[in-house]
Every structure is written in C-alpha cells, then in structure tokens.
C-alpha cells in the first residue's frame, strides 16, 4: 500500500485527532518523530531525570507499540526512560508498512535514536519480541550497552515460532482450534501445520477489510489467551439502569472508575505481546458494548500486531542465531525474568540464554505466564530494575592515605 493509503487506514481505524484526556499525574516528558530512512519515521518519548542512567524500553510484537505502564516497574527517580514505537506500529509512520521492516532495520533505528538523543550508553528493558530485539542490538553494539532487563525471552528460532503457531495446541487445543477456524473463515483454507498458517493468513491480514480485521482480532485474541495464567476478573460493564443509584455513592463511583471496557482492554493486549488485557477475550455481548473509539483502537492495535508478526515469522525470522553471539555482552549485568507457565515463549528459552550468560540473574517465576503484569513477574521485574540501578552506581575511588613523614 502507498504511504497515503496506510495513513488513511490508520486514521480510519483509530480516529486520530479526536483528542484524548491527559493521564492523571502523567510525568513530564519529551517526544518527537525521528526520520530513520526508507520512508519510515519513528515516534519516541523520553521521561525522567536527565542525569540518571538511561533505560531504553523495547516493546514486544513485532507490531506491539510502546506501553508506558512498563515504566512503572522501574524506580522513576533512578532512570531516564526512553520509549519508542518500532516501524509500522503505534505512532510511527507509515502504519503497517512492511517494506524495509526487518530486524536489522530496527536495530539500526535504535542506534539512530541513541545518536539523535545524545546518549552515550544505555541499558535495555525488553519483553517477548523486545528481548529478541534488545539482544540483537546488544550483540551488534555491545559498546553502547550498560545492562539488560529481559522478560519472557523469545529467541526466535524455528522451533520457538512453531511452538506458538502449532505445537501449543497440546496445551490449548480449544483456543488453537478457534484460531484455525478464524483462518479458515478468512482464507477459505484450513491450515495443517505452522507453515500453512503463515501461507494462508498473509493476504487476508494485508487487506485491512472486515474479514482481515476479524482475523487480526482472532490472532491477537489467541495470543492473549495463551499469555495469562493469573487472569484478572472480567471487566464489568456499567448498567445504565443503575446509573442514578450510584450518584453520591463514593464507593460505587470508585468502582465505576475502575471498570474498563473489554474492547479497550483487548486493545492493550494487541499493543504488545508482553502486555495483555485485563480480560483476555470478550464474548460478543461484551464487545458490542464497547465504545466505537475503543473498538477502532483495538482493531488498529490488532492489525499492526498480527500483520507484523506474520511478516516477521514468514519473511524475517529466524535471525542470525543469538546464543552463539551472547559472549559479546556476557560481561554486562543482566536480569532474566520468565513465567514458568509461559505458553507463548516456553521457559526452555530463558534457560538456554542463562546457560550462555553465566553472570545473568535468572528468575523463573512460579504461577506466572507471559503477561508482563502478572503479580510474580512485576515483583521480579521491580527487583531486577533495582539490581541494575545499583550495579550501575559508580564505585567511589578510595582516597589514598598519604604516607607518614619521618621527622
């Protein structure tokens, strides 16, 4: 698609320009668009003390877009945080563009951002696909890295992709069957293996029509189902008939504020592989009660995620193997956090990484899956962020004691 067509699609899906209320107590930040070449422009955002070590936050997907809530696992007084949207997703433009969109392109974009912001070195915090990209950047530019905080390791090997697309049905047969049903509805063909999933979904996802949107929502919903072990309670939908009863009742008012439309929660799921919804899937009744804008945002997020995940799995991955190159960064501090019951990226991947990175701090979290915000994952990430912050504090040079003079 042309850049103009892509922009029109994104605008139609997200209703850009309608205006959003500012988040309460949002931190002061700087942001901008960086021309990274090849017709792509990257959106970035930086916040936190300028004199603190910099943490580059690398979102998942591919196609997930930044999630500012990731910053909440870090001590905001100890880090300057830099977020960015990778090519083709979030606020980066053009939306959904696949040309010149590969792992090496994204690594190059990260380095261009570092130079543009005048940062000498930074640490990297990545989740899921963000770990693949953080590691790829690290082994390419080891001299620019301070350390790593990695959650839900994805090594992007063929067996890792096959697990997600096909072999996971051994644990989630019902969800996988529903995924195949959606592919058959969109393409007219039922996949018999992982390769056929990629072969049959490319054309429908690229059309941006109703059938493509339904398939994209099915793709992101499938991923959401695999991702959460400790599923939060389903989001409640306010009953208009009880609206007047809640007036003046502070406890009900607080509860109302906490209620999140399910479609909006699904949009958050699609924004990043590593940040999944408060309710992983909604039934048709709940989805019908979502606001039109929440639905547009969820559709746009699902399209960018599914389209770019398909593009990378079909055409860009596996990358040059990461494990043999880890020696280039193995001298740097690293914290690895992984849910024991991660069904998107099974925990054998983090163990394989830890085996070639002896100095890394490994935390396999019991009763947790792939979702960033599972309670155990959050606890481990907060501890990991604090460990890295302490590891980067310069060790004071002891003042030499003058030798005594002889009288």
Automatic annotation (TrEMBL):
EC number(s) from the headed UniProt entry: 3.4.11.5
Start-end of Polar residues biased regions: 1-18
Ranges where the record places region Disordered: 1-23, 233-298
Catalytic activity: Release of N-terminal proline from a peptide
Ranges of compositional bias, category Basic and acidic residues: 239-258
Compositionally biased spans, kind Low complexity: 263-275
Subcellular location: Cytoplasm
Pfam families: Abhydrolase_1
AB hydrolase-1 domain residues: 53-374
A GO molecular-function descriptor: aminopeptidase activity
Family that this chain belongs to: Belongs to the peptidase S33 family.
Protein's name according to its UniProt entry: Proline iminopeptidase
